[in-house]
Design brief:
Layout lengths: L1 E8 L4 E3 H5 L6 H8 L3 E3 L6 H16 L8 E5 L10 H9 L5 E4 L5 H14 L5 E8 L10 H4 L5 E8 L4 E8 L6 E4 L15 E5 L1 H22 L9 E4 L4 H11 L10 H4 L6 H11 L8 E8 L3 E8 L7
Parallel strand pairs: 4-5, 4-6, 11-12
Antiparallel strand pairs: 1-7, 2-3, 6-7, 8-13, 9-10, 12-13
Helix pairs in contact: 3-4, 7-8
Bound molecules: acetyl coenzyme *A.
The site of acetyl coenzyme *A has 25 residues, from helix 2, helix 6, helix 7 and strand 12.
Length: 321
């Protein structure tokens, strides 16, 4: 399976750390030194569906395919307005696709989960041209009185078109239960038989524990994939890591003892956009011409659950108009 189209879309609204310090007990220097984030984009007047649609159209255009050529649409999303229908079903309408679709929630690793699933569909001949859209609005599940979580996130969407071809070499997905360190609960209706009220609890996160698990898990995934494929870190041209925290990325880089140039980042401008983060980064690098034919790329993401997903691929250059 190979990637033949990329797209991304970000909200218009730029929110700087100083703007947050206007209503939260925080500062630009705290946020910058602890996370590397300088600003983020937050949905205000647009909707998540519009963002997802925009990213998908750009990916389709760069792939040279039309919406009707797509035979599967996989959406990666943690939360949006509707629990049902899925974001994928909603997108079918605006994109003009008519194909099977579903949403998967692999938290911040959702894009890698979607790619792994697409790879299986393509290998078994179930689908040939798959559109993957990762669209996230974490700003809507944070408590905006909680300075320890709300400053970390940004909204955004990324899309990839994949088809048969030489590209992805290997995947590694893992999962283990750590509900208490990071969760967001949504309300459920009571029934005559189950009267336990389930109210919404905005994102709860034990930052230090998440930090520790994230670094350990990502290093383990990267090391495993390198070893399994007879590679060393030097053979990888770019590590596209989940953009959760600059210090997490730096810890992983130091463990691998590799130069900074191999670890491109955009968390400075967008914050943590959950499962969209690696896709947005990939789209930007590809459009800037930084990803060259034959480059070896390692993707590695981790998220609430705790779940992780990593992949190695050989890049094929994409032409953009
Ligand atoms: N501004 C100012 N002070 C703050 C802020 C803030 N925004 N947030 C917390 N603090 C304070 C704390 O209250 C604490 O104060 P105290 O010492 O008086 O108690 C102090 O700063 C230090 O807090 P720590 O939590 O110990 O700070 P730490 O160095 O661990 O950094 C952070 C916190 C940035 C959250 C870090 O732990 C982290 O990045 N963790 C990983 C978070 C993450 O990546 N989550 C998502 C991953 S999975 C996914 O993407 C879905």
């Amino acid at each position: 399976m190979k990637i033949i189209g990329t797209g991304s879309a970000l909200p218009q609204k730029v929110v700087t750390n100083d703007m947050l310090a206007g209503f939260l007990d925080t500062s630009d220097s705290w946020i910058t030194t602890r996370t590397g984030i300088r600003s983020r984009r937050l949905l205000s007047t647009e909707t998540l569906r519009e963002l997802a649609n925009d990213a998908a159209l750009k990916a389709l255009e760069s792939s040279g395919l039309r919406p009707e050529d797509i035979d599967y649409l996989i959406c990666s999303n943690v939360a949006n307005t509707y629990v049902s229908p899925s974001l994928g079903s909603i997108l079918l309408g605006s994109l003009g696709c008519c194909c099977p679709t579903f949403d998967l929630n692999g938290a911040c690793a959702g894009l890698v989960y979607a790619l792994d699933m697409a790879d299986a569909f393509i290998k078994t001949g179930k689908a040939h041209r798959i559109l993957i859209v990762a669209a996230e609005q974490p700003s809507r599940f944070c408590d905006w009185h909680d300075r320890s979580t709300s400053v970390l996130f940004g909204d955004g969407a990324a899309a990839l078109v994949v088809t048969e071809g030489e590209g992805f070499m290997d995947f590694r997905l893992t999962g283990e239960n750590h509900t208490d360190v990071m969760y967001y609960k949504r309300s459920l209706e009571v029934t005559p038989y189950d009267r336990v009220e389930e109210k919404t609890t905005p994102l709860v996160m034990e930052g230090r524990e998440v930090f520790r698990i994230a670094v350990e898990a990502s290093v383990r995934d990267v090391d495993t994939l390198l070893e399994r494929n007879g590679l060393t870190g030097n053979d990888i041209d770019f590590f596209l890591l989940h953009q959760a925290n600059m210090r997490i990325i730096e810890c992983i880089r130091v463990h691998l003892d590799l130069p900074r140039e191999k670890f491109p980042t955009n968390i400075q401008n967008y914050g943590n956009t959950s499962s969209a983060s690696i896709g947005i980064l990939m789209d930007e690098l590809s459009r800037e011409g930084k990803l060259k034919d034959g480059d070896t790329i390692m993707m590695s993401a981790f998220g609430g659950g705790f779940v992780t997903g990593a992949a190695i691929l050989k890049w094929s250059e994409i032409k953009y108009n």
